[in-house]
Design goal:
This protein has about 725 residues and is of the alpha/beta class. The protein has 3 domains: about 325 residues, no CATH class; about 230 residues, no CATH class; about 55 residues, no CATH class. The chain has 31 helices and 8 strands. Strands 1, 2, 3, 4, 5, 6, 7 and 8 form an 8-stranded mixed beta sheet that branches. A hairpin with a 2-residue loop joins β1 and β2. α14 crosses α19. The radius of gyration is 34 Å and the shape is elongated. The relative contact order is 0.06.
Amino acid sequence: MLLTDRAKGGLMDKSNTMNTSELVVEKVEDDPSEAARRAVDTLDDVEPTEEFVWSRFGDGPLPSLPKAAAIHRAFKAATEFGLPETFASALANSVVDPPALRIALNNPTKINVSGGTIEVIDIDMFTPGLVPLPTNTRTMDVRVYPAGGATGHLGPLIGPRSEQGISHGLWIQADSVEHALEQAKRAYDYVLVKNPLKDSVAARGIVMPVTVVYFEMRHRDNQPAMPLLGTADGSSRVTGAHAALGLNDPKTTCYDFPTNRDSFRRFVNGIVSSHPASLGATAARKLRAQRNALITPTRVFLRFTPQPGGAHGFGRAVAAYVGMLHVDPPRPWTPTGKLEAMAEAVLEVLRSAAVLDDVHHDYLAGLLTPQAAEEAGLPTEPDAQAAYVLASLLRSDRRKLVDQGIMEVTAKRSVSAPRRHDVIAELALRPTRSAANTLMPGAVGRERAAAMRAAYLRATHLPEYASRRWDVTGREPDEIFECARAELRRPDAEQANPEAWRHRLELAALAQYHMTAYEALKRDAMGNKGGDTRGPHELLKLMLEDERGLLLMRQAIIDGRAGNPPRIVDISGTLVHSTLGDKGGIQEGSNGTAVAVTDHWLRIEGFPSGGPINRPVALPTDTPSMRATKLQDAVRNTIDHIAKLMEDLDDVEAASGGRLMDQRGWPLTETSDIVKSLTLVQSKLGYWGVVADKQAAQIDEDAEGDDEDPEDDSHTEEASRGWDDES
């Protein structure tokens, strides 16, 4: 960082006490935990002394307010460097030492970023001349997007974006000045609560450089664009500095100071020309906080040059640079914020590659209102909106571009399938989260949106979403179900065809929205080694391979769209009227109300895994045929389950290599009863098979009007006697 000689002198005066305090401040900036804040609060509660408290300038003189002539010379040097006049003016008026700016412009540093290089300089600046970027990704948790359908909200700002090729800055678009200020204030208030650094900045100043970029705030209502210097990284620190300076209204820093430099200079001079020694204790403490917050070291991005033939713009390069700092340690955003940052990068990559036009980009980004989406022929139902995002971005032919976007804002060299699916699922939930953010804390819709997130992300890990071909068609649930059932009934040889899952996956993507929202699907319990550790995606897979599972999905969509919890249906698709027992099973002989699906019921009775397998419940309304069908279905599922367990057991490898069971075996004393039971099952199934063939043959004869004597059924009697003898 560059300092005037006077500033350097002030800093040197405190060198003996700098190290410990600076570490405290940096720790708070990296991790504003309660313990770290208490450490700073403890220091603040003590009257400052030379031995104990270090602040950047202490009680020494601050750099004086630059003279107009020096600012003009710095402005001229900046334009000669190639900066646009609006950028050069903002920079020259905001630096602490204009001559130092002229020197720095003679020898900028080049840093490599994703897609090209950026020329940067390190210099001190007055914090009132900077604004936190109003599109701060940290605030994505609470943004309200138009796609959520909430009224009375202006929605997020568009950007930051940039032109292609060599660029000096970015642009952000608002509907109006009021829109820009509303979003800036929303970000300001959120950061002060979630990452409160006001006290630490007031006590110590900003220690590490913030990253500054030039941007224009544009307005759709034809108000003039506002040239600003924003913090692409360090917005929390600058927000804290503004709070310490009493600059609580973004209008002052975003519109008043940039258009009235005299007002800006009077504000700065009111601090640099005052001295704590001439004031009482309370006033001196306030002034000392303002002095610490007034100046920050910065790294200013001057010019971006893309790689030859590259498609990167300055906006993508800045997002990648900031993402490297926050998506992965040391200073991470929230889980939602990290995934949202990656999702934004993915959409920008797809738009730059002309895979998405502006309409589809804005739809996937949640920037279209439901009315605009309907006019564009795009889904407006929340479940279909979310499913459309999955279908659009999980496609195998777009995987490379999706991964490129994720890698641009992370330090990863590759992207795992779970990470990819989580990013896309988070984007799919953006409209739902937006609608929930407009509700009061504790509201059912808000709590439901928060609770469904983890399960929805995990459900999206279903591999078939990315390996098969499917779309969101806008058909009614009944129509999708009929086509899905036809797919399920296709021969096993055809199930490997990527086209054989289109309807089932559309059904699943719509159903998982409602099943996770009503907690009929929950994420697998962490650390529960003795319980069912299957994830929601594994349960979805089982449902996709079972006709009753498809029926449950169909019912989930119907119920969810009606604002009701998904309900249990039997193999015929009829709602089950009963009650659930304490262990999650349906109680026999009960004529209660329609039963809602629960995660416990799905795991224990619907699609069990290991342990005792519950027998299907006989309801009073069941006919003998319905009861038999339920039991047949349970037998089929149980045998499939046994076959899968045998395959898994056969695949267990010994520590020394080879298959463990081939070496260890299974003693006959333990397997004899199992073999006997299986033999009985085989015999009974064989007998029923003969009976079924006999019945089919009889029906054919009756249809042909054949009067010949019926076939000798001695073989049937023998089969029956064989069963009775063995029994």
